[in-house]
Amino acid sequence: MTDMTPLRLGIAGLGTVGAGVVKIIRQKANLLASRTGRPVVITAVSARSRDKDRGVNLADYAWEDDPVALATRDDVDVFVELMGGDEGPAKDATEAAIAAGKDVVTANKALLAHHGHALAQSAEAAGRVIRFEAAVAGGIPVVKSLTEGLAGNDIDRVMGVMNGTCNYILTRMESAGLPYDEVFKEANQLGYLEADPNLDVGGIDAGHKLALLAAIAYGTRVDFDAVELEGIGSITIDDIKHAADMGYKIKLLGVAQLTGRGLEQRMTPCLVPATSPLGQLEGGTNMVVIEGDQVGQIVLRGAGAGEGPTASAVMSDVIDIARGTRISTFGKPAVELEDSRAARTSAPAPYYLRMMLDDKPGALAKIATVLGEAGISIDRMRQYDHAGGTAPVLIVTHKTTREALDSAISGFEATKILADGPVAIRIEAVS
Ligand code: HSE
Questions:
Q1: Which residue of 75, 286, 337, 353 pairs with 137 in a disulfide if CB–CB is 3.0 to 4.6 A?
Q2: Per the residue annotation, which of 91, 102, 109, 209 is the catalytic one?
Q3: Distance from the CA of 304 to the center of ligand 1, in angstroms?
Q4: pTM for this structure?
């Protein structure tokens, strides 16, 4: 028999995403009721300012200044947390909601990357669920894909471009031939950057997302501290042009992979083949590539941010709860999640190296010697555009370990012939 008991939401945070969720619930009431078998309603909302015009009618809902009070109201079944932040009100209210017996839907990647395991444990101990589709890659249903659609696979690798702002900056640098600083300013003016831009360009936001996907893919406790993080700030227009000459694009690429060395999690600039789906990803769009032992490669592409796409992801979790679909936060019970066994080194790969040498006899020979001594073989090398007593040098290595590369980089520094650099970018094997 159909359960006509309404599912009652309390929404904390009425920014772009919160307003988008309110709109969907108001405009699609019949669709939601027919798909879930019961009405989905909002009973109360909370945000920093009550007076702000958000373009949605909030008159039907109770107002709470304090998100904790909202989260613990008797007439709220699901606490929808759209405030953001890994500490403070978002964490307090989420914990309070769980303690008060509510299910939680959140878009908060930072909160879950730092406290996901503890929150999942307390929710599951209380018989509650935490769902977070909107926290990773906006509108792309990647959490659902991993926890449900691909649950019959061992996951070989999860990769993704999951920060639209960085992909916008890198692709705009290439298409307009503009330097990083100028495109960064442009992105800021367009409102693409987070309040703390380092969350975007430092790779932190994307790193949070990768840590969440890795936990689901490998059944491990979310371990953001183990993500090797490197932002896009040192990528120059020259790097982008050289990469293009060799048939590659530069992406801020996340890779999670379980190998004999343990779980590797990297969110770093990488070269990927220009012809691959990841290489062809333009602008602020996101892409997640999942490789499963049975299914092969799955490519998911779509909007990683914005009102409609992110609200769409929030609604998929709300709809699951309304339907009675209850899945553990990370795809298996939190008490059974294993330690992530972080890998101390990453899988060997070829590297792109760019450096500026003092233009003196023997300079290049010293660099080649250091690489040889570190056991690194050169695949390609070129010098270009000499200027003012310095010589820019570009080297592509054969496959090597990051350890050997780091030892070579220390060796370069010891030669005292470096005028600048080196910039080292991994070349990721993707098809
Ligand atoms: N700032 C993020 C991005 C969206 O640019 O993709 C929220 O995670």
A1: 286
A2: 209
A3: 7
A4: 0.95
Q: Is the CB of 200 under 6 A from ligand 1?
A: yes
Name the closest-CA residue to atom 2, ligand 1.
Answer: 163
Is the Cβ atom of 390 under 6 angstroms away from ligand 1? Answer: no
Give the pLDDT of residue 1: 41
Distances in whole angstroms, Cα of residue 410 to Cα of each of 230, 292, 374 = 18, 38, 10
- In order of their start, the domains of the chain are 7-106 (3.40.50.720), 142-303+332-343 (3.30.360.10), 351-427 (3.30.70.260)
* Calpha distance 136→213 (Å, rounded): 8
Q: What is the pLDDT of residue 3?
A: 62
Tokens 């003092």 belong to 358
Judge whether 209 counts as a catalytic residue.
yes
Could you report the per-residue pLDDT of 8-28, keeping only the tens digit for each?
999 999 999 999 999 999 999
- Ligand 1 pocket test, candidate residues 109, 194, 198, 212, most atoms within 8 A of CB: 194
Rounded CA separation 223/230 (Å): 16
Question: Angle, to 10 degrees, between the axis of helix 109-125 and the axis of helix 89-99?
Answer: 20
> How many other β-carbons are positioned within 10 Å of the β-carbon of residue 113?
24
- CB 235 near ligand 1, within 6 Å: no
Residue nearest to atom 4 of ligand 1 (CA): 305
Closest by CA to 232, choosing from 281, 278, 167, is 167
Contact 198, 314 (CB under 8 A): no
Task: Please indicate whether residue 205, judged by its CB atom, sits closer than 6 Å to ligand 1.
Answer: yes
Given the CA of residue 166, which atom of ligand 1 is nearest to it? 5
Query: Could you tell which of 112, 171, 200 is best to mutate to test the pocket of ligand 1, judged by most ligand atoms within 8 Å of the CB?
Result: 200
Helix axes 402-415, 363-373, angle to 10 degrees: 150
Phi, psi dihedral angles at 296 (to 5 degrees) = 80, -145
Among 215, 106, 109, 119, CA closest to 162: 109
- Ligand 1 near 164 CB (within 6 A): yes
Which atom of ligand 1 is found nearest the CA of 168?
5
Residue 75, phi-psi category: left (phi > 0), alpha (psi -120 to 50), beta (remainder): alpha
Cα–Cα distances (Å) from 417 to 371, 377, 388, 397, in that order, read 14, 20, 14, 20
What confidence tier does 386 reach under pLDDT thresholds 50, 70, 90? confident
